[in-house]
Task: inverse folding
């Protein structure tokens, strides 16, 4: 089965938060020492809650893309031809959502700017008795917020691939030929990461198999098809297991029989649901 390297990253072209150190809050030194001794992190308020919310929503779908259609090792994700159409449809959906969110954010700049003013005022006003000092600090905080122009289209979806991964044996590079050196290193390095992704998927399959055996002992109807999983669809743990094993067996054929078993158990379980 051919594999393809796929990356879908979600980012914002504007600053999203600002870090406020304890020293900046003019707290008593004893209080600062206590907070630092207990590994308390400094304050990092978000400049725009609307932007954060929309980025979070996109990243949920990004996670669904990787979990449902890819195997991975670290930040490297691989999709097979069998799952590419579904993965590509999810990527297009993420891009459409990003366009909609950017259009909505453009109209929210003024209200988000006002909210950040209120936040900055709440942080700074108690710290300064002199209006001039307060005004200087307040202006500095307001400069962190994106300009109206920057806020017109702050969300970016960047897709790399799908890039084919060759599993063919590669010959030693020709000395002095940079193209052959690049091709050689690309093949060796990518194959190593793909094999690591397959090994990670195999470990997951074994864990899923053990969980499936536990579920068979329990035989609770919610294990079959009515467990809420955080999306609009309700799927039981048997269904989730069957879907994950099918994905893994597409890359690691060793688990094909286990995938078929999980699918048959799901069908049988659904027949038992009143």
Result:
């Amino acid at each position: 089965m051919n594999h393809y390297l796929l990356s879908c990253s979600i980012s914002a072209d504007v600053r999203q938060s600002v870090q406020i150190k304890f020293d900046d809050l003019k707290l008593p030194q004893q209080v600062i020492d206590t907070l630092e001794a207990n590994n308390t992190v400094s304050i990092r308020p978000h400049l725009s809650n609307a932007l954060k919310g929309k980025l979070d929503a996109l990243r949920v779908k990004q996670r669904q893309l990787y979990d449902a259609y890819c195997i991975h090792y670290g930040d490297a994700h691989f999709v097979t031809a069998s799952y590419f159409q579904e993965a590509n449809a999810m990527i297009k959906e993420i891009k459409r959502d990003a366009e909609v969110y950017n259009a909505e954010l453009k109209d929210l700049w003024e209200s988000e700017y006002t909210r950040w003013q209120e936040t900055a005022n709440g942080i700074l006003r108690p710290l300064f008795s002199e209006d001039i000092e307060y005004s200087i600090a307040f202006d500095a905080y307001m400069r962190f917020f994106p300009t109206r122009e920057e806020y017109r289209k702050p969300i970016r979806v960047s897709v790399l691939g799908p890039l084919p991964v060759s599993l063919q044996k590669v010959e030693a590079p020709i000395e002095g030929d940079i193209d052959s050196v690049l091709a050689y290193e690309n093949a060796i390095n990518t194959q190593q990461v793909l094999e690591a992704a397959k090994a990670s998927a195999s470990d997951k399959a074994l864990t899923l198999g053990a969980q499936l055996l536990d579920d068979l002992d329990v035989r609770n109807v919610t294990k079959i098809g009515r467990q809420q999983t955080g999306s609009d669809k309700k799927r039981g743990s048997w269904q989730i297991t069957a879907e994950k094993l099918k994905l893994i067996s597409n890359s690691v054929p060793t688990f094909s029989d286990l995938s078929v078993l999980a699918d048959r158990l799901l069908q049988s379980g659904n027949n038992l649901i009143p």
Observations:
- Strands lie at 3-12, 71-73, 76-80, 155-165.
